[in-house]
Amino acid sequence: MKTYDAFPEPIGGYAVGRTQMDVEYTASDHSKRQLTAFVYYPSDSSEGKTTSTYMFSEVYEMLNDQPLVTEYLKKKDFFSIDIKTQCYDDLALSGKEKRYPVLFYVCGGGGSPEWGTVICTDLASMGYVVVSIGHQNSTMYKRKDGRLFNVSKDFSDVIMAFSGDPKMLALAGKMEMRPDDETAIEMCHNVLTLPILAKLTEYSELQAEDVRYVADYLYKLDSGELNSIFKGRLLLDIGMGIVGHSYGGPTTAIVCRDDDRFACGIGLDSGAFGLLDSDLKKPFLLLFCEPNYNMNAIIGANNSMETYYFSVDRVAHLDYCDIVFTSVNEELRGERDAMEMRNLVTDYTKNFFDHYLLQKAASVESLAYDGVDLIKKTSNK
């Protein structure tokens, strides 16, 4: 398989800065949450700096301690971190615009906030400020203060219990590749009412609470209450957008449902945990591999705003993140070329946010990629 020594050049015209922030707070369940966040943003020059480190080696090594990483994957190389990024630490924020719109990226469960480096860099190069959070217990990361946080055993146990649940396996065996709406909604309802989902949903809700806290933090940065390069520079009054991959997808939907500061969201090959009876009241886009429609059909059935379902063929679950460039195990990859997959995900994401946040004429329905089908667009207004 083709390997890469560098991520692709960003699509947009800005150089991309990246800065890291540690935050902590007490969550609604009284747990102490110690998080980190990488913020990608537009800059006018790379200032002669070398590119940012992709993933800290200590974080990569924590994979071997994760129960989520099977013995099979431990015996084979999973992915490499020896790759050049296209962002730079702590550049000056671009002066071309007075304020820049804000997006959040949520990585998959067991992953790290750096796993979305390509899409975050692309979006920042096109004028967005993009925040990717390390979520305690469900992701792995290294804080600026040096402390390491790995996926907790409890979260791992919950994920593995779900994937091995006999009732879930029975339902998965009945999922059709392109079901009619009624069949897909019924299947999704049956999945979401499984008892095993309760604990999984708790983690999704905690991640959503993390996002809302970091959003609060950004408001303080913009107001100048906290000192940063972002004082008076964040375009917050139009709302924020959020995109999540895999387990991060339900988090994006919960954030949209519960926080009016977020205007729209995207799920990349994700599900609908915790969203059984939820009207998101926000435009939402789902980009996925079949038979994933069975896992999220209920979102559009309940949402009073536009919901787009795009089915993508010849891709694997991890193709929606940096693995398309960092993977050294071809069994983890789909059939699409890595650059094509990157362009596809970035285009749908950018056009969606450009339209629903910036009110541009951009349209996801105007995009044309072979094997990408709009299988449904709903609006229950």
UniProtKB/TrEMBL annotation:
Protein keywords: Hydrolase, Lipid degradation, Lipid metabolism
InterPro entries, alphabetized: AB_hydrolase_fold (IPR029058)
Keyword presence, Transferase: no
Highest taxon above the source species: Bacteria
Protein's name according to its UniProt entry: Choline esterase
Pfam family, one: PAF-AH_p_II
